[in-house]
Fold these 2 entries.
Entry 1:
Amino acid sequence: MLPDLNNLPVYDQTGVNERIQRFCSRSIKTSSKTAGLKLAISMIDLTTLEGKDTKGKVRQLCYKAMHPHDSIKDLPTVAAICVYPSYVSTAKKALQGSDIKVASVSTAFPSGQSSLEAKLTETKFAVEQGADEIDMVISRGQFLAGNYQYVFDEIASVKEACGQAHLKVILETGELDTLDNVRKASEIAMFAGADFIKTSTGKIQPAATMQVTYVMLDAIQDFYLRTGKMIGIKPAGGISTAKIALQYLVILNEVLGEKWMNKNYFRFGASSLVNDILMQLVKTETGMYQSPIYFSKD
Amino acid sequence: MRNHDTDTTFKASWKYSEAPESTSHVQIKKQYDLYIDGNFVKPVKGKYFDTINPSNDQKIARVAEATAEDVDIAVKAARKAFKSWSNLSGRERGKYVFRIARLFQERAREFAVIESLDGGKPIRESRDIDIPLAANHFFYYAGWADKLLYAFPNRNPKPIGVAGQIIPWNFPLLMAAWKLAPALATGNTVVLKPAETTPLTALKLAELIQQSGLPKGVVNIITGAGETGASIVNHPDVDKIAFTGSTAVGKYIQKATAGTHKKLTLELGGKGANIIFEDAAIDQAVEGIIDAIFFNQGHVCCAGSRLFVQESVADLVIRKLKHRMESLIIGDPLDKNTDIGAINSKKQLETIQNYIAIGLKEGAEIYQPKCELPKKGNWLAPTLFLNVSQSHKIVQEEIFGPVLAIQTFRTIDEVIEKANNTPYGLSAGVWTQKGSRIFHLTQNLNAGVVWANTFNKFDPTSPFGGYKESGFGREGGLHGLKPYLKFE
């Protein structure tokens, strides 16, 4: 049932900015840095979502996901590969034998401008192809028009179509305008059955910001205290450096803590982030920065 | 609200490695003398005392103890310098103050480290707040030096003479800047005494002033405890006393200067009310509570040490507050990740512990997060007291430590009455999304500063000072020039 959206907590943009600044001033050094970077790798949804994607590119990306950088010992694999529905089966085959998940975007990604029927068909197709996780988009137009029930029902229907697959609900916070709206959309998604809430498609600027992530974490905490259900979170888009990734982990660490500090409850949606993290990891081992040419680009 | 047996702790799992600020660039001498008439001179009686690092009890340096004889020499030097300094054009005086500001900014990191070493405050605060703000005060008042005739048109402003300035240990350098900058810009000369537990940054400032080429005797910095301060207050040739510190000492100073020609400003204690309405952005309000009471270990005269939460959101606020306190990092002040540093002195630690004992005896419910405190040095966990009333001693008296007393309220009139029901009147905070309510409260709260949806924000352009037993006179802004001027 649609939750009561009239008494939701509100957010003060200035106050949230200050809080974020304070998280970002944490100094992550030595062993805590290495641990954080490795954790970040294990949480990445390695993503390619382009019209020019090919099967070959997807297969290469899958190999990279399983072997981020073989010369570093004890390096985890990434959490998942994120592709369009048409490449799910390719990815699934390429990842056989690993425990890396295949995530597929769905529901007329990135705009969501299609009929419910088409969205459900697309979702079912992706699941049939073998997708372990579905990344859906909400109908922002309906949300902004105040048709919350529509948004809620749509998410619930897609959840049903997902079957066993995990559902990540993309709020596309860059189009929601205010932090209060981000909270409202988070609430609708969680009550409608989302397993994860995700900030952005990566196709709209601004994509993930620490501010909206913080608000979503706050919503997840409140939801957990009310229902006992742990919802995951995935900031996506624009997280391209190891430093920023560590700052996100600081926020996660200090707001939700240890139960959420793993790939079951936190993901980064990113593509170029992996290599920057690898570069930092090699630097902490050797004391020197290596040239980017030593890191494979797939 | 909860209908499941959920684990409500959100314990952080990722421990941050040590990240200490480098001290290699910092120079501290083994012994510091008195800075009088442009030189460092030995005290007449040859007495020295140790200054201690409160985070590990280690001695940092020996510092001269000024006696009445030294105070007399310093006041004479200031008197001698006054004639030419006050006759200098405002523009020339402004140049000197600007030069101090710039030198200060260049050496900001060194000052920040020493401030944290000597006083126990986290480097995050001394680096990001104390030192930049202190520099800004010099910059701001440097700008006023040649504009006094425009600041006070047709009133012919003139400097007063020799100012005796006595500053506290909670913001040693920032308070020195608050006092020195307006005094110099207006053409006064100064004898300044930092607190006995935190003299080092003021003495480093003396070195910097010496390098800046400020004419000799314009600023004299002498160290010592209460008796040294009393000698300044009672010296017949001092024209103005500016004091920041406890209300008890403030009362003594007012008695001592009564019937003399001395002008006086006092910035004393406080028991600030931080008021949270049900419509506030609760999560940011909780962060505001943290800033209000745990900033600088609660050693803040304008700390929001009384929290008033509207009844309907009290459970939520307290739950969030406790959660937030779990993620505060307490420890080495020089570690960049430290949120709460060491209590400034053994004596202050005892005072705070005594108040905690009183609170417990009064039957208040205590809450402290589970945190490991270092073995050596002066440490105290951040503390909440719940279920208290206006009649509790811990609600009435200034504790000057990381101890918050929490009460709930129902109506706006009730909270205004309770907030004003204190001998103090320095600060207050209001948290609500409603603009009209903010204005209603700012008009009715008896406090020198009322923050809305924020707390403990300072700016050189904004006047700061108290009502009632929190003192009188304003520092900062245009208002901050007045106490150092006489008008004809």
Entry 2:
Amino acid sequence: MARNVAIVGTGITKYGVRSDVSLAELAWEAIREAMEEAGVEGKDIDLIVVGNAGGWSSEYLPGVVVAEYSGLSGKPVYRVEAACATGSAAIKAAHDAIAAGEAEVALVVGVEKMNESPTPIVVEMIGRAGNYFWEFENFGLTFPGYYALYATAYMSEYGATEEDLCMVAVKNHYYASFNPKAHFPRRITVEQCLQSRYVAWPIKLYDSSPISDGAAAVILASEEAARKLTDSPVWIEAIGAASDTSNLSKRPDFLVHRASLWAAERVYKRLGIEREGSYKHFDFANVHDAFTIAEVLAYEALGFAKWGEGYKLVREEQTYKGGLIPVNLDGGLKAKGHPIGATGVGMAVEHVRQLQGRVEKERQADIKKGRSLAHNVGGTGHYAYITVYSLSKPRRG
Amino acid sequence: MSQRREMEEFLRQVEGFVEEMKRSMGLPLVFDQKTGAALWFDQRELRLRFTISVEKIRKFFEALSEGKILATRCKETGTIYFPPQVDCPEAPGSEVEWVELPREGRLLTFTVINVKPFSFSHYEDYVVGVGRLENGVNVLAWVRGDPRKLKRGMKVRLEVVRREPEGYLTYEWVPTGEGES
């Protein structure tokens, strides 16, 4: 039977343009903080999972480079890739190893140095993340371009406007303004967003998450190990994962984020809850807002809103604190930043600290149910991971 | 100035600075414009260009040069594959046959690529769309014409075109007139 898995330590770096550090130095910033928080030393760690998408950065084998720099050479290590959901996939890999009894204590570190390459090269690399031969080679799509295909269809079908989408950016920047680790810790207005230039019509610069460097780390432990290390573990209650076609042309309508829907159905089944109205089971959520349209699509796939009505939650400010469910209180990918491999691990750090009531008070959720949901998408819905964190020990095993 | 020229201009400036640094201190250092942080300017440039096997789908490309657009169909299940694939995972024992795609369709969605990938940075802004053909197969391709006149649901036709300046054959959606679905 599967064993319970807890998070016993967290670390996160400042996200942004981190020209001041190398990839290994950046990873160590987060690792050191997580190990100190957990009260573990290198000798206590059985497994290291490194989340790094790479391509734009110089180290080809970031797993061993990070392990060596962190004094952990000799330990089992591998690198995980699931595009922008790399960090969540890395957590799942370590979680599964502990649940299966293959490790007691595992280090998960997500790290990305996107700014080692010039922006047009990074745009190219992310554009290739889909089906290279059939959709990039001839047609040169970009990451915002892929999401714009969803935005155009969605807006045309349901009457959502560019202003509605900008309101997502305004909300996420608002909460980022209280998060000193965010890439853009400052507020923006709807007007500023509407006036920003198009990167892939109808998606504008201010609808888009930035090209960020950053790292985040968590220490995962079995129930037995966790009990020795902490009085206040946060449990990984359930994980739901799914994928969708590499070719966007193979998707039927560009109105539904299918991978997110399938991942949601899996995780809610585990929890024994209904998808519709799922928000009432969580104190807060993070959803994958690589672009503002992605946050709206996520609301619907996760069951926070009915199909075609996700944008109304934004309009009615239902995903601010005090609304139906607060979403992206750390600023989201949009304003906290999106260092690809670190993003999912950064969500885990946020969820542990939120549930334990120790983030900045302006962006601290009211913790009543002791349970939260983190939704992390890879590529343009190519991968989806939903991780549910809880203060209560799951009943399994 | 095209995005390609902007980037080349920027790199020329950085390289000029690096050459100066190598002459004066013997090291390829540059400094972050905002923070002054020291950065090593990589002295090893990697050029990536892949050679990709199309042997099993050679027929698709040969047909393209005759002005036809082909897909494959699983003989057992009838599933049409586009992009074409020669294996039928639903019925592993079955073969596929080549079929010509219908050309008429409706536009499902589209976007304008304003900020381009490096290898597309020599083009003007281009429109990418997904259209649904009469047989239900979706095709992603560039869409010809003024994006302001495009609408989801409008009629489009798939045509074989020569992509310039590279000068190779591909396919493109062409709006054929008004008409919401």
